[in-house]
Amino acid sequence: MTVSTPVSAVFPDQAFTAGCPTREVLDHVMSRWAPLVLASLADAEPLRWTELRRRADGISEKMLAQTLKRLERDGLVRRDAKPVVPPHVEYSLTSTGRELTDHLVPLLSWIAHNAETILAGPPA
Amino acid sequence: MTVSTPVSAVFPDQAFTAGCPTREVLDHVMSRWAPLVLASLADAEPLRWTELRRRADGISEKMLAQTLKRLERDGLVRRDAKPVVPPHVEYSLTSTGRELTDHLVPLLSWIAHNAETILAGPPA
DNA sequence: CAGGATCCAGCCTGATACTG
DNA sequence: CAGTATCAGGCTGGATCCTG
């Protein structure tokens, strides 16, 4: 590891250098499943475990649990467990989580609309 | 794999289901290093290999090569090699890549400004 | 319904060496 | 300078089975 220039001058100094808090959050948010889980919640809060599994198509139970726990620890997602039988648990966005999805959803939307073009490769 | 509801009704139908083009692009763009490489280029185009390695702090040569190749195949990054000795290669964003970073950079910027708060965890 | 525990394959990384 | 090739090792993620 070397002393290095931050990724961008528009970001705070020391942003996105290896091992710094910024990078850790980036890795959480940009992980394989977090964007899909966050976007699902942004679209339809609150959601239950089973519904989240359906929306984040292809996710395993392990990864859903891991992703949700991390997002909950990060204060981006709130978990509400109602003490009934059978269990009833609801997941929703915190206000911080909502701020995040306000930036994330437009990005995903752009990707959705341009995916075909992108996979077609460079113009020539 | 099951027939499932798309992640969000605001996206085109069939968006972000497992194995669809949208998901593939998502995985490219949200991979571990692509966001940092794209943001670096958005901040200072064009950039050379060595400078990219410095900005995407912690990236290995293998991962830089892999990330750049994939972004180039996707038509998001352009590679310009000038036939001189020693070699001089410049990387820059395509117009599509610039569209992408227009959405990506605000997201990274938000993360940079909120990282400390996020890692502090939920309010209580 | 909502997870926890476990095992295994594959990817990423790091180090090193080599090329045009 | 700008990469490519190779190999060992750790960690991530996926599949499966089990539980309150």
Distinctive features:
homodimer; DNA-binding; 3 strands; 5 helices
List the helices and strands and how they pair.
2 copies of one chain form a homodimer.
Chain A: H1 21-29, H2 34-43, E1 47-48, H3 49-55, H4 61-73, E2 77-82, E3 88-93, H5 95-119
Antiparallel strand pairs in A: 1-3, 2-3
Helix pairs in contact in A: 2-5
Chain A binds a DNA duplex (20 and 20 nucleotides) through α4.
DSSP strand count of chain A: 3
Strand content of chain A: 5-15%
Give the C-alpha Rg of chain A: 17 Å
How many helices of chain A does DSSP assign?
A: 5
Number of domains of chain A: 1
**CATH fold-level label of chain A:** Arc Repressor Mutant, subunit A
CATH architecture of chain A: Orthogonal Bundle
Assembly state of the chains shown: homodimer
Brief overview:
The structure is a homodimer of 124-residue chains. Chain A is mainly alpha-helical.
Give a description of the structure.
Two copies of one chain form a homodimer. Chain A is mostly helical. The first copy, chain A, has one domain: Orthogonal Bundle (Arc Repressor Mutant, subunit A). Helices cover about 50% and strands about 10% of the residues of chain A. In chain A, a hairpin with a 5-residue loop joins strand 2 and strand 3. At the A-B interface, helix 1, helix 2 and helix 5 of A face helix 1, helix 2 and helix 5 of B.
